[in-house]
Amino acid sequence: MRTANPITTAIRSWVLRSPGRLASGIAIMVAVLYLARLMVTAVTGAENSGSDVRAHDADTRSTSVTSTPAAAEEVTETAVATISASAIGRSPATAAMYYAHAFVDTTASPTQWAVALSRVTRPERVNDALATARPTAPVSILGPTRTLPGTGTTGMTVEIDTSAGTMAVAVTDTDDGWQVASPLPTLDLDDVAAATPTTGRTTAPTTTTATTTPSPGTAPSPQRIPESPSSSEPAPPAQQATSPARIPVPVPGPIPIPELDTPLPGPIA
């Protein structure tokens, strides 16, 4: 004979005897589960929101820490000499140094010079007025960029020391990266001419002297000082023709017979 389970027997007898108790028990259980769920949601939701805020703050701090060195990183002329076109506007210092490097380049043709500057600013800004301010004498860049602190988030000023003075480049943050703002910076041409003999990329200008060098085919002959003719030398033919001829004076007496080594031809009289 099978023995009845005391637990199920008690529950069955309790349910069968009082259905109202069963309904109230179920309602109580549902209410307890609902309250427990609300408590768990409230506790876990607050923790998740706090962790989200802390994670967001950490991301913001890491982003600001990461972006600050990139914005303040100084570059040299060598670093931007072979830089790609997509990396020109990655930072204010890069854009400013690229502009200075292209602006002082005297070896490029006018078209190449304008195209190089258009990569870091709007093409319509590279006009004839800027072309007249282009240095004709070589100018050397003396050091890396120098970003001025506290110049703003969308606009900054970068200074670059050159042999013709300091170039202050104002750059702004655009959708295409950092670009040089208008008016475009230039150098004083008087300072460029004065700084030409300096070392670096500059070369000394060729000086012209007033002394004229004769061509090989027309070498000048040395000047001869006319000498006064001596008394022993005969006069030139022109002077002989113009001077009167002297008439010989006859000597009285017999004509002398010259002594000859050989006898005269013919019979002797």
Quick one: how many beta strands?
A: 4
Secondary structure category: alpha+beta
What is the residue-mean pLDDT, rounded to a whole number? 74
Give the helix proportion (percent range). 40-55%
* Count of discrete alpha- or pi-helical segments spanning 4 or more residues: 8
Give the H and E element order: HHHHHHEEEEHH
Radius of gyration from the CA trace?
A: 56 Å
Biggest sheet features: 4 strands, antiparallel
- Strand proportion, as a percent range, falls in 5-15%
Unreliable residue stretches: 62-71, 198-220
- Taken from the alpha-carbon principal axes, the silhouette is rod-shaped
Question: Distance between the terminal alpha carbons, to the nearest Å?
Answer: 216 Å
- For the largest sheet, list the strands in their spatial order: 1-2-3-4
Structural descriptors:
269 residues, alpha+beta, 8 helices, rod-shaped
Describe the structure in your own words.
It is a single chain. This protein is of the alpha+beta class and 269 residues long. Helices cover 41% and strands 9% of the residues. Strands 1-2-3-4 form a four-stranded antiparallel β-sheet, covered by helices on one side. The longest helix has 54 residues. It is rod-shaped. About 12% of the residues have low confidence.
Layout of helices and strands:
Layout: H1 6-17, H2 19-72, H3 77-81, H4 92-103, H5 110-118, H6 128-132, E1 146-147, E2 155-162, E3 165-174, E4 177-180, H7 189-194, H8 237-242
Antiparallel strand pairs: 1-2, 2-3, 3-4
In a nutshell, what does this entry contain?
This protein has eight helices and four strands; from the N terminus they run ααααααββββαα. With 269 residues, it is α+β, with helices and mostly antiparallel strands.
